[in-house]
């Protein structure tokens, strides 16, 4: 569960599908508008229901959109809509306690919820054999949960939500910025005056009566939209909806809120010293217009024009010329009642934010002088055309789009109108909204600076007031439990509301994979898929970070960044424009063991996109100016990462596992020390590692094998010899049975990593270990999550797994727990791992099989998932039908096989522990675990 902002996909389209446009070009047939087919009806209780058929995969998505968000809360009860979302998953009259979080993953499904200013959404995706079960469990959550609420459940969920706030806000750099902006942009009493997650004292004060009042007021059927999308029969589904949802009470009429745009009489400038931030950040927020307002479309494009390309005036001034920041972003954010236009700059270390503010002004003046380039406008619309299809490429995304547009605009198919309105935006419209809303407007400006660096804040800014939680050391003061189940009289029903059986087991077949070879040694793997006229592709080149020269970690990362900065015949801005005009995206990046050239485009533009890929590979520009800018950007990013406790924990964990002499022991981007010495000549020397021999091209989408091979043959001119791959040795004496503590003073949470080096993905036992981990930490149904979050309320989430790599990868357990629960959480993890084998029986074997086998029905739905499947085949030399073989391997595993995996790879005594948290309150507590303790700094070096 999370608090989110659902927004309509930025859409623009020539209002035809790719195939229809090609058909028109060839035959003159007039194309039709893009749309999502659906059927809508309303139950007697007022619930609006939308059905969408999609038989491409044997899965069903269900989304229930409640028209209530934080904008319906009362002052003093902030965060309640989000808190109620959490409560909704706990229990209901006809479903076993905790079933929603546990059973759905065990059926092979996924589920979650989200709350934002204006609404709350609950959603699931399941194999179609679980369709009846999801109707049962989802309708019971919706209509039959309120009688089951207990004081114990209330108190436990308070702790979970508190942990979510600590993780996302209190323990995160710049986490309080949204609160500062809302308090000052929206007047007291305005529904957007507070954050979605609210204040901890408000959450702590919540009572059962508050929960019931909120439910009774807002959780009626007439205040919601239900969307079911996927492999369904419409007539049959109508009957099921009537049975499961038709008896839910209508609820009182909820008076619609009218738009409440705000104006500012003056500009407000505020500063805040952030304990975690390492870089100064400036934000300027201007009040604008609400969602669906006619001017939102021009404002959205304006945001892109101001900062979204290398030719954009703000990018030119702040990044290129004055070198104040690696990036600047401007964007329109609209909600149901009001909207905001946001300027955001996270500046380089030590940068005075006054200079950033002056640079923004200069950039805006330049925009006024230059106006709107029609070529830029065309580029943005081409990019948004591709986004249109990407935004509705899965059944869940379609469900979200239909539900959002229906509930908040009364028209499930408004996507078509959005496309038209965005396509119709002119340069005159953009200048009009700029002059109306942005030019000379008052705004709220925040200067968030690192602790002790107030001199970087904008001059004459006022101090922002923020409530900050005081950490309690006594875990017992906030101890919670499941408690007793509520006693109540069941709501009568004319239907049997007990758990229905599974339907017919869906026939799952992995996508058909083809393979071919180019003359230059590049192997092509592909999956043809015609659901949307898109292509996703990836060229994987072995080596990556592991090819970095000794002492210069970060060379590969900087190299792949620089390769995207123009070609011999195109400046960086011209290359960016050429890609954008195709509506494509192309990126190049470095991973631990390989480099990637990845992207997506409309299928009709794949040929031209690959021509640009070829140009990028064979004609590097070696732009010295861009090299200096990128190097500065990486240094800024590395400095920024020092403010993130979760990133610190992961980096320290990796260094402890792999040591100082292995590439995996250093971040892919390098460190501030290693990056400092990198020169452009290092990158030129590294270019020889970019070879097609041993590399693989992966393509998924709306082209046949012959079409892909024909287009890909353009890469045959790429003929660099294959480089020798480096060899690394793992530490001879691994670190075990020790707690390594990194001090982050004042941390509201402790970040935990527990684990050891396990095995390579090429190891014949890799699958078996992954299967054996599923019960321990595979998602919300895993024991770690169920115990640390559901039973104890110590954390927002807890998981375990094995990192996939050719090198021996680590097994890990990871969680962020509230500070005063650090020791208790470590003790639970220690005990759970120690006794895992003895507590793993025949039931766990069956649950693992069901969960993973059925999960495959939705595992390869998206083009990105199909691409990942191809990458697994090529990188780890898996057979084309490895999915089927893996399933057979899973079915064949005996209980003894599971025990062997656990005893071989998951011995607690072989594991090390990393704790990143507040030393003052937790060092002595963690000592009680009884293990040796070593203090490290944030870089993993021992503190004397």
Task: Give a written overview of the molecule.
The chain is α/β, with parallel strands linked by helices and 944 residues long. The protein has four domains: 37-256, Cytochrome Bc1 Complex, Chain A, domain 1, CATH 3.30.830.10; 268-391 and 404-463, Metalloenzyme, LuxS/M16 peptidase-like (Cytochrome Bc1 Complex, Chain A, domain 1, 2-Layer Sandwich); 514-717, Cytochrome Bc1 Complex, Chain A, domain 1; 739-936, 2-Layer Sandwich (Cytochrome Bc1 Complex, Chain A, domain 1). It contains 32 helices and 25 strands. Strands 1-5-6-4-7-3-2 form a seven-stranded mixed sheet, with helices on both faces. Strands 10-11-9-12-8-13 form a six-stranded mixed sheet, with helices on both faces. A hairpin with a 5-residue loop joins β2 and β3 (48-53).
Query: For the terminal residues, how far apart are their CA atoms?
Result: 42 Å
Which CATH class of the largest domain is shown? Alpha Beta
- The CATH topology of the largest domain comes to Cytochrome Bc1 Complex, Chain A, domain 1
Shape: globular
Number of strands: 25
Report the helical percentage. 25-40%
List low-confidence stretches.
1-32
Concise description?
The chain has 944 residues and is α/β, with parallel strands linked by helices. Mean pLDDT is 92; it is low at 1-32.
Secondary-structure map:
Layout: E1 2-3, H1 18-27, E2 39-42, E3 48-53, E4 59-66, H2 80-88, H3 99-106, E5 110-115, E6 120-127, H4 131-143, H5 151-170, H6 177-185, H7 200-204, H8 208-218, E7 224-230, H9 234-245, E8 268-274, E9 281-287, H10 296-307, H11 313-321, E10 329-334, E11 339-346, H12 353-370, H13 374-390, H14 395-409, H15 414-423, H16 427-438, E12 444-450, E13 462-463, E14 514-517, E15 523-528, E16 534-542, H17 555-563, H18 572-581, E17 585-590, E18 594-602, H19 606-618, H20 624-641, H21 645-658, H22 672-676, H23 680-686, E19 696-701, H24 705-712, E20 739-743, E21 749-759, H25 766-777, H26 783-791, E22 795-802, E23 809-818, H27 822-834, H28 842-859, H29 863-875, H30 882-892, H31 895-905, E24 912-917, H32 919-927, E25 933-936
Parallel strand pairs: 1-5, 3-7, 8-12, 8-13, 15-19, 20-24, 20-25
Antiparallel strand pairs: 2-3, 4-6, 4-7, 5-6, 9-11, 9-12, 10-11, 14-15, 16-18, 16-19, 17-18, 21-23, 21-24, 22-23
Helix pairs in contact: 2-5, 4-9, 10-16, 11-12, 13-18, 17-23, 25-28, 25-31, 26-27, 28-30
Domain Peptidase M16C associated: 408-678
GO biological process, one term: proteolysis
Organism: Mangrovimonas yunxiaonensis
């Amino acid at each position: 569960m999370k608090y989110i902002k659902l927004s309509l996909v930025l859409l623009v389209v020539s209002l035809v599908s790719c195939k229809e446009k090609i058909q028109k070009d060839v035959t003159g047939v007039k194309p039709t508008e893009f749309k999502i087919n659906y059927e809508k009806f309303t139950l007697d209780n007022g619930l609006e229901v939308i059905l969408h058929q999609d038989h491409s995969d044997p899965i069903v998505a269900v989304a229930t959109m409640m028209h209530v968000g934080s904008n319906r809360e009362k002052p003093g009860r902030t965060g309640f809509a989000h808190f109620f979302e959490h409560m909704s998953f706990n229990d209901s009259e006809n479903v076993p306690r905790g079933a929603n979080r546990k059973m759905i993953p065990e059926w092979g499904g996924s589920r979650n919820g989200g709350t934002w200013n204006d609404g709350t959404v609950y959603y699931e995706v399941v194999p179609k054999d679980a369709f009846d079960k999801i109707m049962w469990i989802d309708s019971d959550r919706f209509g039959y949960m309120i009688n089951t609420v207990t004081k114990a459940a209330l108190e436990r969920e308070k702790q979970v939500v508190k942990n979510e706030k600590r993780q996302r806000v209190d323990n995160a750099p710049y986490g309080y910025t949204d609160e500062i902006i809302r308090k000052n942009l929206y007047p007291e009493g305005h529904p957007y005056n507070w954050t979605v997650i609210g204040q901890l004292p408000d959450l702590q004060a919540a009572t059962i009566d508050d929960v019931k009042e909120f439910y009774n007021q807002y959780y009626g059927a007439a205040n919601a939209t239900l969307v079911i999308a996927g492999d369904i029969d419409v007539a049959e589904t109508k009957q099921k909806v009537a049975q499961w949802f038709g008896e839910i009470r209508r609820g009182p009429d909820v008076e619609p809120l009218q738009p409440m745009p705000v104006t500012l009489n003056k500009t407000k400038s505020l500063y805040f010293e952030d304990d975690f931030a390492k870089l100064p950040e400036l934000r300027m927020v201007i009040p604008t217009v609400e969602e669906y307002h006619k001017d939102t479309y021009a404002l959205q494009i304006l945001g892109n024009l101001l900062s979204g390309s290398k030719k954009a005036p703000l990018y030119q001034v702040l990044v290129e010329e004055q070198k104040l920041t690696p990036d600047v972003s401007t964007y329109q954010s609209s909600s149901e009642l009001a909207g905001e236009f946001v300027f955001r700059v996270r500046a380089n270390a030590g940068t005075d934010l006054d200079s950033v503010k002056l640079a923004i002004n200069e950039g805006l003046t330049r925009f006024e002088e230059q106006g709107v380039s029609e070529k830029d406008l065309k580029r943005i619309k081409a990019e948004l055309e591709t986004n249109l299809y990407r935004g509705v490429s899965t059944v869940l995304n379609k469900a979200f789009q239909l539900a959002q547009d229906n509930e908040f605009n009364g028209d499930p198919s408004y996507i078509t109108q959005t496309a038209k309105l965005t396509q119709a935006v002119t340069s005159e419209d953009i200048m009009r909204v700029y002059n109306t809303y942005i030019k000379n407007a008052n705004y709220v400006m925040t200067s968030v600076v690192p602790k002790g660096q107030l001199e970087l804040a904008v001059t004459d800014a006022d101090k922002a007031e923020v409530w900050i939680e005081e950490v309690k050391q006594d875990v017992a003061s906030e101890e919670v439990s499941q408690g007793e189940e509520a006693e109540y009289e069941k709501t009568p029903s004319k239907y049997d509301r007990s758990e229905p059986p599974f339907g017919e087991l869906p026939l799952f077949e992995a996508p058909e994979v083809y393979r071919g070879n180019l003359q230059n040694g590049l192997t092509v793997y592909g999956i043809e898929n015609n659901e949307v006229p898109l292509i996703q592709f990836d060229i994987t080149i072995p080596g990556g970070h592991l090819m970095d020269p000794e002492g210069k970690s970060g060379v590969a990362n900087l190299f792949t960044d620089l390769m995207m900065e123009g070609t011999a015949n195109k400046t960086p801005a011209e290359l960016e424009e050429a890609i954008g005009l195709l509506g494509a995206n192309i990126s190049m990046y470095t991973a631990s063991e390989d480099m990637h050239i990845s992207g997506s485009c409309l299928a009709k533009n794949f040929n031209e996109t690959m021509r640009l890929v070829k140009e990028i590979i064979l004609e590097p520009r070696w732009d010295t100016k861009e090299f200096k800018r990128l190097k500065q950007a990486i240094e800024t990013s590395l400095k920024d990462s020092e403010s993130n406790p979760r990133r610190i924990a992961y980096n320290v964990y990796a260094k402890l596992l792999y040591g100082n002499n292995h590439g995996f022991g250093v971040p892919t981007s390098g460190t501030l020390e290693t990056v400092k010495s990198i020169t452009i000549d290092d990158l030129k020397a590294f270019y020889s590692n970019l070879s097609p021999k041993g590399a693989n091209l992966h393509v998924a989408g709306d082209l046949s094998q012959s079409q892909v091979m024909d287009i890909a043959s353009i890469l045959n001119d790429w003929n660099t010899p294959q480089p020798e791959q480096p060899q690394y040795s793992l530490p001879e004496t691994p670190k075990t049975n020790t707690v390594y503590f990194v001090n982050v003073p004042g941390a509201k949470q402790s970040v935990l990593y527990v684990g050891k080096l396990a095995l390579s993905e090429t190891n014949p036992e890799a699958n078996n270990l992954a299967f054996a981990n599923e019960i321990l930490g595979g998602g919300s149904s895993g024991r770690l999550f169920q115990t640390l979050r559901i039973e104890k309320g110590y954390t927002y989430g807890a998981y375990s797994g094995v990192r996939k790599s050719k090198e021996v990868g680590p097994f890990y357990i990871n969680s962020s727990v509230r500070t005063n629960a650090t020791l208790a959480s470590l003790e639970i993890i220690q005990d759970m791992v120690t006794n895992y084998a003895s507590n793993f029986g025949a039931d766990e074997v069956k649950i693992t099989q069901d969960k993973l086998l059925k999960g495959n029905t939705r595992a390869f739905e998206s083009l990105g998932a199909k691409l990942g499947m191809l990458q697994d085949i090529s990188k780890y030399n898996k057979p084309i039908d490895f999915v089927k073989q893996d399933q057979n391997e899973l079915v064949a595993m005996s209980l003894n096989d599971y025990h062997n995996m656990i005893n071989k790879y998951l011995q607690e005594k072989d594991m090390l522990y990393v704790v990143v948290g507040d030393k003052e309150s937790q060092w002595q507590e963690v000592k009680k675990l009884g293990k040796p303790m070593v203090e490290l700094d944030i870089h993993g070096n021992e503190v004397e």
